[in-house]
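Retro notes, item 3 of 5
We never archived the inputs for the zinc ion complex last cycle. Fixing that now. Sequence and ligand:
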Amino acid sequence: MKNATDAARLIRPLRSSLRRLLQELVRTNSVAVLAGGNETPAQRVLQAFFRERGIRPELYETAFIRDAKFPQVRRHKSYAGRKNLSVRVGGSGRGPSLLLNGHIDTVPPGNARWTYSPWSGRFHQGRILGLGSFDMKGGVVANAAVIVAIHTGRIRLGGDLLFESVVDEEWGGGGGTIAARLRGDTVDACVIPEGTQLEIYRATRGGFVVDLVVDAGDSSAYFSGEEVVSPAMPLGRLLGWVARIAKQRARVKAKGAYRGFADPVPVQVLAVESNRLDPQVPLSVPSRGTVRVYLQFLPQEDVDGVITNLRDDLKKFAAADPFFRKYPVEWQPLIGGPLYGHEIPEDHPWLRCFEQSARRVLGEPAVTTAAPYPCDAGLIHRDFGIPTLLFGPRGAGAHNPDEYVEFDSVIRTAEVLLAAALAWTNT
Ligand SMILES: [Zn+2]
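Structure as it came back at the time:
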């Protein structure tokens, strides 16, 4: 019980400063796009927050990963000026170490209408509103709270505690997390407070996004008396192929942490584009069409094998269709290679320790399940051998308008993380 009551006692006085920090982080644009990101101003907000409390964080460049011999680096991206922030709290060396990882980048706000500005940071009915509030500045604030609580409470830990706010997680980047590991920040266990509705996720899925592009060439033929060729209608048949793949994938048997999931390996169409409904675009027949497909994979699946089979199947489909025989479907992966999932065994000591801490803080057992998305956990766990789980606040609207996080649940997250850090680093 002691760690749980200590955690509540240590976090309580920080509440209003944590709220202000979260609001300021939401108000600071840290959007990442496909090829780059603008995270450093938000890292400076965090840096100032720590410094004002006598903690000295390290802000470091991540661009060196482009020269590293690590296969999953997205070499088409720019990392210039994109900095990670880290804080290490040294322990006595008698216990295992722990990493509190979180990403500071957000997706762009999109074209749909937000009720308030994506950067409002408004506090309303217990919620903080805005882009990245739930995914995952709320979680980053909970992580920061743990460091400040330990520092101001002068708590001596057994093992080291490492905080990191990384860049480039969205768009399947992984760059910030890779930079942190490659520079030598290694630990014995990790937790990432992505939004989990105060549930524990012991597994994440793999993911892959591919654009299927059909180019039928010369649109100038329109209104010029020549025959107009357009992929717009054949795109319907291509969507039919995606639907068949989705049906096939729906037969994959869910295993382990994904047992009981209604759709354990979803196939989704994220976008279909062939001309635009924009009033600036004249009535014209499009010569190009794209279907953007998002596939997810179980942690145990042979992801590369599944993708190869899909690609072969698409080739067969196209070979049997006179239009696609003439105008081939191009396979253009959007983010590069796939992300891989991960899973911590049910009886793993880090999971056991975390479940116990969560139960003590929350007063009842937290549900342990699996994430409906991929994230940096796959990299940390699989490629760097650090057992990783997810536990974070309640909220909604990630990657959509009117995103919000419930502020009380950010505080609860901080308490659980702190109790778990105390317990784990002193085992
Ligand atoms: Zn996220």
